[in-house]
TrEMBL record:
Keyword Endoplasmic reticulum included in the entry's annotation: no
Formamidopyrimidine-DNA glycosylase catalytic domain residues: 2-150
PROSITE patterns with a match to the protein in the record: FPG_CAT (PS51068), ZF_FPG_2 (PS51066)
Cited InterPro entries: FPG_cat, FPG_N, H2TH_FPG, Ribosomal_uS13-like_H2TH, Znf_DNA_glyclase/AP_lyase, Znf_FPG/IleRS
Gene Ontology MF terms in the entry: 8-oxo-7,8-dihydroguanine DNA N-glycosylase activity; damaged DNA binding; DNA-(apurinic or apyrimidinic site) endonuclease activity; lyase activity; zinc ion binding
Coiled coil: none
Known catalytic reactions: Hydrolysis of DNA containing ring-opened 7-methylguanine residues, releasing 2,6-diamino-4-hydroxy-5-(N-methyl)formamidopyrimidine
Cofactor needs: Zn(2+)
Protein name, entry field: Formamidopyrimidine-DNA glycosylase
Record keywords, A-Z: DNA damage, DNA repair, DNA-binding, Glycosidase, Hydrolase, Lyase, Metal-binding, Multifunctional enzyme, Zinc, Zinc-finger
Gene Ontology biological-process annotations: base-excision repair
Species the sequence originates in: Virgisporangium aliadipatigenens
């Protein structure tokens, strides 16, 4: 899933490559991806792409003076920019392309989604705050000061992994970077959020800032096509089950859930003790 650093990089890429161009038209192939009907997508035709920004993990493309195409790429979505788009109109429901944005120079970009769970969402709105997911966002994880960060984290009692990825608490952190942040902070993903000491909270805030800042610096300037592979190449524990921890050499372990998993280093984060993998425990019984 694209998270704060990748969405920030996509916004920067669009500012560099697409801002200043006029929208020829927006084509919708996956009707389920378009969540709004007023204004219609035809209203974007003839408007200049004036900017691109980010709200948490939402990508916001500014059209003309008062329209926004706001996109959440979900778990399997991505933006593919092409210098020359085929002139053949999209066929509804065919292939991975959900939305295509054509620009006046023949270029443009596709919003695609792999897999069968179609959760990519696009909104054409006058105010991004009318998008339900944007309206519910907590403070930006990269911008929250230490005091705000501590208050937000302690506002919900739960395992810190889940709290960090709750977009209403802090926006922008997903599954991958939460694993990386907790590894950098030397904190168990099962630690309880409202029991963290001030010292541990400060360490966690510093890990958030450092991890996300480094990821943004690495991502911004990359082409959209290379962002995914570059993200994977810089990870210490996420998606590295069975590999050695780059800090201590211990084996990275995994806890699986019904639709996701987390990775961690026992030596760095849990005092050397493996965490219970509830899914495997059920299979054993």
């Amino acid at each position: 899933m694209p998270e704060l650093p990748e969405v920030e990089a996509l916004a920067a890429f669009l500012r560099e490559r697409a801002v200043g161009h006029t929208i020829e038209r927006i084509e919708v192939s996956a009707i389920s991806a378009l969540k709004t009907y007023d204004p219609p997508v035809t209203a974007a035709a003839g408007l200049v792409l004036t900017g691109a920004s980010r709200h948490g993990k939402f990508l916001d493309m500014h059209l003309g003076d008062d329209l926004h195409l706001v996109v959440h790429l979900a778990r399997a979505g991505w933006l593919h920019y092409r210098d020359e788009l085929s002139r053949t109109p999209l066929k509804p429901g065919k292939g991975p392309i959900a939305v295509r944005v054509r620009l006046d120079d023949g270029s443009g970009f596709d919003l695609t989604e792999a897999g069968t769970q179609k959760k990519l969402a696009a909104y054409l709105v006058r105010d991004p705050q009318t998008v339900p997911g944007v309206a519910k966002l907590g403070p930006d994880a990269l911008a929250a000061d230490p005091e705000t960060f501590a208050v937000r984290v302690r506002s919900r009692k739960g395992q810190i992994k889940g709290v960090l990825t709750d977009q209403s608490i802090l926006s922008g952190i997903g599954n991958a970077y939460s694993d990386e942040i907790l590894h950098a902070a030397k904190l168990s993903p099962f630690a309880i959020s409202d029991r963290l000491s001030d010292e541990v909270m400060a360490r966690l805030h510093a890990a958030v800032r450092e991890t996300l800042s480094k990821a943004v610096a690495k991502s911004v300037g990359q082409k959209a096509a290379t962002l995914k592979s570059e993200k994977r190449s810089g990870l210490a524990v996420h998606a590295r089950t069975g590999l050695p921890c780059p800090v201590c050499g211990d084996t990275v372990r995994e806890v699986s859930f019904h639709d996701s998993s987390l990775q961690y280093c026992p030596t760095c984060q849990t005092g050397g003790k493996p965490l219970a993998d509830r899914r495997l425990s059920r299979l054993v019984r």
